């Protein structure tokens, strides 16, 4: 996110993140569930391959200069090394507390416990390293989208401090949640991600098939990911967690 903060600009950033999430899930859906990637072998200090992969990948990303921005939040923030190369300083448009707002633990549990069974087929093809790498991409894309909620909250606060401030002082989480919720926007988001899954998930061919079908008309059964999984993911988890980030940020906005 850049210096220009407005609700339409931040919402555009959220729309852009949808593409990354849909593509990451389509990629992961190519492989079966591969449960051994999530089991804790005794030899790996109680860590699954998936967890090992994310921890090690985050060390590399941190050395390369990631996790400086408030929307790039590591899953394992403890003991991450500092960047080894100069990093660009980003405009400080958020309250300094922004960097400590994280719902990654909830994203982690949701992804492994709820989402993976919904969009991967039961099975084991032995490609565990690839599985872990694809899981990391899914987690990263969802985490980024959800933590952009910090900017959403800042813009909403700036647009109406007179409405937000009393609720923040009263620590009225429920009223804050109501005030920042836009049901009509949420309905559109759900429809759009479902449509993106339907379009990005189709096989592209150059010929019309025998039934005369063309791209854009593929049935959901031919789709690389069930489009309804995307609307469910957003409805049950991505949007609620984004709003949790918004509330968490707002509660500290006046500190
Ligand atoms: C992110 C926003 O806040 C809320 C969360 C939304 C989302 O996660 O997509 C959409 C609308 C709001 O209820 C927003 O207003 O754009």
TrEMBL record:
GO MF terms, alphabetically ordered: chorismate mutase activity
Keywords per UniProt: Amino-acid biosynthesis, Aromatic amino acid biosynthesis, Cytoplasm, Isomerase
Assigned EC number: 5.4.99.5
Subcellular localization: Cytoplasm
Pathway where it operates: Metabolic intermediate biosynthesis; prephenate biosynthesis; prephenate from chorismate: step 1/1
A Pfam family that the UniProt record links to this protein: CM_2
GO BP of this protein: amino acid biosynthetic process; aromatic amino acid family biosynthetic process; chorismate metabolic process
Keyword flag Glycoprotein: no
Catalysed reactions listed for this entry: chorismate = prephenate
Domain Chorismate mutase, first and last residues per copy: 128-246
InterPro entries, per the entry: Chorismate_II_sf, Chorismate_mutase_AroQ_euk, CM_AroQ_sf_eucaryotic, CM_II_prokaryot
Taxonomy, superkingdom: Eukaryota
GO cellular component: cytoplasm
UniProt protein name: Chorismate mutase
Gene source species: Oryza brachyantha (malo sina)
């Amino acid at each position: 996110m850049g210096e220009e903060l407005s609700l339409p600009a931040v919402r555009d950033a959220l729309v852009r993140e949808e593409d990354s999430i849909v593509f990451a899930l389509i990629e992961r859906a190519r492989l079966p569930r591969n449960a051994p990637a999530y089991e804790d072998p005794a030899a790996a200090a109680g860590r699954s391959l998936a967890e090992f992969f994310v921890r090690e990948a985050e060390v590399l990303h941190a050395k390369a200069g990631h996790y400086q921005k408030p929307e790039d939040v590591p899953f394992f923030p403890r003991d991450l090394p500092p960047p080894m190369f100069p990093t660009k300083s980003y405009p400080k448009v958020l309250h300094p507390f922004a960097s400590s707002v994280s719902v990654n633990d909830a994203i982690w549990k949701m992804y492994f416990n709820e989402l993976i069974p919904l969009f991967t087929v039961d099975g084991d093809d032995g490609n565990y390293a690839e599985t872990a790498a694809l899981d990391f991409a899914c987690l990263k894309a969802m985490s980024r989208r959800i933590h952009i909620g910090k900017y959403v909250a800042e813009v909403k606060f700036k647009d109406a401090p007179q409405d937000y401030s009393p609720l923040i002082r009263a620590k009225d989480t429920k009223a804050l949640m109501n005030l920042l919720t836009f049901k009509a926007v949420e309905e559109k988001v759900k429809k759009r991600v479902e449509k993106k899954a339907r379009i990005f998930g189709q096989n592209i061919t150059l010929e019309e098939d025998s039934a005369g079908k063309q791209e854009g008309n593929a049935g959901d059964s031919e789709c690389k990911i069930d489009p309804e999984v995307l609307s469910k993911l957003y409805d049950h988890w991505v949007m609620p967690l984004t709003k949790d980030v918004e509330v968490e940020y707002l509660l500290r906005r006046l500190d």
